[in-house]
Structure formats: structure tokens, C-alpha cells
Write a structure and sequence with these properties.
By secondary structure, the chain is α+β, with helices and mostly antiparallel strands. It has ten helices and five strands.
Amino acid sequence: MVTLSQKKILDRRLEAENVTLLKYLLSMELRRLKEEMGCDMVFFMGVDGRTFSSQVPFQLNTKQFYLFNLLKTNLPHICDQLAAENLRIAIEQYKEGTFLISGVGDKAFLAMAFSRPILPTEFQKLINGAIKGSTVIKHILELRPIKEEALKQYPKEVSDELRKLSRLLFVERFDQTKQYKKNTEILNFIKKKLADVVGVGAVEEITTVTFNELGTSAPYMTDQLWRIFLEKVIRNHVKRISGEIMADECYRTWMPELDKKLKSFV
């Protein structure tokens, strides 16, 4: 019997299982950092001057344009400090605004540009936010999975941020994962089989009822649940609509076909 905990995972989080998702995860963190810090622009760059990712307004006002060009002008100096002098945190104030520089490991850094006035009383809060963001991005950059054993090494605010990003990634990009694509193909396979023996009109009702019985839906199915699902479909519905002989034949042929299809995704 399938327990409720097996049917549903209440706190679903998505592991960044490929480079594309990791890049998306990085972009999500830069957006969050820009909003939380209240900065105009944020850049994630290498100490060689390359820009890996950034959050910049589509249209720059006069102050933002000045800061953008100022960063480009000062980039060689900033990179030299990071590479040669082991710079970790720096605040640079100019007439038009402020830069907050935070190292991300030994080979990269964050540069946050503020066009608004920043009071000295804000510095500690901004520094704490920059350190948290740098730590989160370093974790992402190292292609490390967001698993509990890895999160235990971080301060609570960092581990909480990584968990939040993982949940957001699940919501926004789950349809790009191998699991989602596999389950979509398995469901289409079963629907096609069903349509041949019970008619197209009955397929949606049968699959919906069976998913409700399992307490889950197609995207979150496992191999074990698919076997239970197909057995229920055959025993409870094919038998009722098309008779016992047809149900036995479907069970004999469909179950091995399902197993073969499930294994083909390994």
C-alpha cells in the first residue's frame, strides 16, 4: 500500500541537474540580490574581467550610465586587487553613487552599483547581504547540489536562501527536467494503449480518477507508482469497460512494455 508520504512531497525542491538549470539558478540569485540590496545593477564577474551574468535595467538613466562606465574603467584595478591582494569586501563611493565589491572565491566577484545615497549606518547591513549573496553564488558556481548535508556547513541565512532558490527553481523550471519529460512520455504511452481498448472519450476520466486514488499527478510519478497506476487502470477500468478477457490480455502485454519503457530512461 502506498503511504501518504510516498504519494506527496510537501516541500518539493529541484536539484539543479544540468548546466542550463545552474545558469538559471545563478540568474535567480542575482535578481534576488538586486531586489534585497536595493542596488541599481549587479554584476557577477571573473577576475579576468569577463562578465558571467548581470542584472541591468533595460534603459539606464544618467546616473546608472555613469556608474556602468565607471565600473568598466575601474575594472582592471578591481580585478588586480582581487587577484593579487586577496580583496574580499570593498565599498567605493563616488559623486554619482557607490560600488560594493564582494569576492566569490578566488576567481570571481560581485559588483553592486547604487545610484542612491548610502548612509554609513547602512554599510553593515549591505556588507552582510553581499557576503550572503557571494556565499550562495559560490555554492552554485561550484556545481554543488543543494542537499541537506551540504547546507549544514553554512550559516542559517545562507542555507535558507539556497533552499528558497531550489524551491523557486522547482516551480519555474520543473518542466525542463528529465523526470518531467520522462513522466510525460510514460503518460502518453498509457493513454494511447487505453484509447485502443476503451475509446478516446474514456481515457481522461480513467487517468484522472486513478491519479486521484494515488494522491499525486503525472509530473511527480516514480517507476513504482507507474506500475501501480497501470495495474489499477487495467483491473478497475479496462476490466469494467472491456471485460475480464481483455483486461487479462492488457495486463499480460502492457506491464512488460511499461517496464521496458521505464528502463529505457535509465
